Each structure stands twice: as C-alpha cells, then as structure tokens.
Amino acid sequence: MKNIILLGFFILSNLMLAQDETEFLNSDDIKQIYQEQELIKKKSGTYFGLGTGMSIMRLIQAQEPEPFAPPTPYDPIVFTLQTGVQSFFTKNVGVRGFLALDMFGDEANYELKKIPYKSFFMMLSLGLDAIIEFALTQKNRHFLGFYAGAGVGGVIYGDNRSYSGLKNLYISGGFIVQGGIELTLAIRHRISLGIKITPIQKDILAPFIEQTDFLGSLMYSYLF
After folding, report:
1. Is the separation of the CB atoms in 165 and 191 below 8 Å?
2. Tens of pLDDT along 150-173?
3. pTM for the full model?
4. How far, rounded to the nearest angstrom, does the alpha carbon of residue 96 sit from its chain's CA centroid?
5. Which of 35, 114, 155, 218 has the fewest Cβ atoms within 10 angstroms?
6. Helix, strand or coil, per DSSP, at residue 52
7. DSSP state of 186
C-alpha cells in the first residue's frame, strides 16, 4: 500500500512539473525572447551594396572654381561597391564590417559635359560601423536608424595633365570615417544616405586634388 501511495505521489508530481514547464514555455516573456532571437538571426549575415553619389569638394570647386585648380571644374558621379558582414546583438543594435570601393572619373559628371582630359579616382576602404535603429512597425520588418564607423583607406588619383604617368600618380592612405541614416525594408533591403571622409590629410595647403574629400552617397544593399 505504501509503495502504491509513493508511486501515485511521484506520478502526480511529474504531471504538475510538466504542466508548470509548459506554462513557462508558453509565457509571453519567453515567446518575446524567442521571437527577438529569431529576428536577430534574420538581420545578421552577409550583404552586398551598390551606390552612387558625389564629391563635396569637387561640387564646391564646380560652383566656385577660383582659387581652386584645375581651371575646368566638373562634378563627377561617384560609384560605390560595398560588401561585408553585419551582426546584431539586439533587434536595435548591431555592428557591420565593410570593404568598399569608391571610384569616379571626370568624364562621367553631373553636368553631362565632355571634358578635355581624362582622370580617375579610386579609394579602397576597410572598417567597422556601429548601427542603431528602431522598428517602424509592430511586426519588426521595417527599421529606421543611423550608423557611424571608422576604418582605413587608400586613395589613388591620376589624369593626363598634372598627375600623368605612374611616377606622378597621387597615392595616399590613412584613417577614414563615415556615417549616415538608413531605412530597412522587409529586413533584407537597406537604403543608406551617408557621407564618407577620405583619408584625412594634415596639409591644408596641398593641391586641391590632394586635400581631404567628403563623398556623399545613396546606397542600396541586400542582405543574403
């Protein structure tokens, strides 16, 4: 009889524990934690982006060519390719590594003018962004936020005038910084409006081409 009572007590205790565990797993707090972890996984991964923009310094030069050189100012169209990996710690905060290539030539300019010389600019940069964004809907599919980052970059510029030939190419490297605002749609589609500062130069009296530039850009990136 004693063994039967103990067995019944054991079975009843296990049933009560199983019920408590089920209620715990079905609680709203646990559901919310699980849903946020799933969202974090969806927002993290490899991405690839394409963008276009302009050189702020060249825009100033195009509007006010004096005393800047060269005497034939054009505002070139900047093209950007960027890839990397992003990882979120919460649904609102994350980091993003980037490898970017910014390039332009005066032949492709916003004035749509044919120019009397050829030129090219390329900057390769590597760095890390911090991202802070907030959900626009209760379903957590659309976000609005901002980013700020830093890294290192290398610049090369050449033309068939003052910087012609391998010996006369302008080559520079150093720290770069960037930042902007971002709109994320359906988690995977990200539209960024930002600005990137080319390797910072200390010589403010350097030729115009060799000064620190500000590259504004509008970029679309897709998260795989």
Report:
1. no
2. 999 999 988 887 777 777 888 889
3. 0.78
4. 7
5. 114
6. strand
7. T
